[in-house]
Structures are given as structure tokens and as C-alpha cells.
Amino acid sequence: MTLATLSGGPTLDTLRERLARHGYVEVDEHTLDGVAARAAQLVLLPLDNPAQRPEFADLLVILPELLRQFGDDAFTVAYACPPAAVALARRFGVLRQPALVFLHFGALAGTIEGLRDWREYVQAFARLCASGAATGVTETKGVTR
């Protein structure tokens, strides 16, 4: 059971509002490159319909807490809503949602796909931060590609 199930489930607009309140930037396939080029470490969250994928509500609780572990200024966070999210997920090879895409000055550093336990998230964030420029590492639950 997810947090979305307990609360009756958020809408895509509700998720957007929560992300914007955290100061995260909404991007699309036309604006991402400009934002990412200026960010040493950017985390992109390609959103999907929370009615079909309630795990997104869980990730929106986890992500701000996780970012605090690395310092408030360690990452720029961006999100994309459908249909741009679909195009961006495809562009970065995301196969499983929810996903976080890591870019280093616009170059793909890797992805984390699927929900994780806390320790796995912290370890994956640390690995992707340390990797710097494009390594293309994908962290899918139980599998690294």
C-alpha cells in the first residue's frame, strides 16, 4: 500500500504543486538542455499519471528527504509532466517508473529506476554523484545496467 492509496491518491496537478513548492523546476524536452547545462548535478523526475502509478506520491515524499542527506545545494531538481516526461524518459533510456535521471552539466550520469529502500537510494545517489560525467549507469531494482 502506498501513501497515495492511504490519502485517496493525488492528481498530476497536486504532484506539480508539491514539486513547485520545493523550488524544483518544471522542464520539457525543449527546456531541459538549457537548465541541465548550467547544473553540475541535476536530478530529473519524469512524472506519470499518479492514478496509474501511485508510487510517484511515495517518491515525492522520499526525494526531498534524500536530497537533504547531500546538502540543500548539491542538486538542481527538475521534473517533467506528460507528454514531455514520456519523451525525456525515452531519451534517457528509462524502462521502469518512477525514475530519477542524473545529469552532470547536461551529460547523462545514470538513472535510478523503481522505488528503493532508503539505504539503496543513499548508496545510488552517492555513486552517481561520485561518477560525475556520463557513465550511463542505470540502477534498476536488483539490477545495474
UniProtKB/TrEMBL annotation:
<protein>
    <submittedName>
        <fullName>Tat proofreading chaperone HyaE</fullName>
    </submittedName>
</protein>
<dbReference type="Pfam" id="PF07449">
    <property type="entry name" value="HyaE"/>
</dbReference>
<dbReference type="InterPro" id="IPR010893">
    <property type="entry name" value="NiFe-hyd_mat_HyaE"/>
</dbReference>
<comment type="similarity">
    <text>Belongs to the HupG/HyaE family.</text>
</comment>
<dbReference type="InterPro" id="IPR036249">
    <property type="entry name" value="Thioredoxin-like_sf"/>
</dbReference>
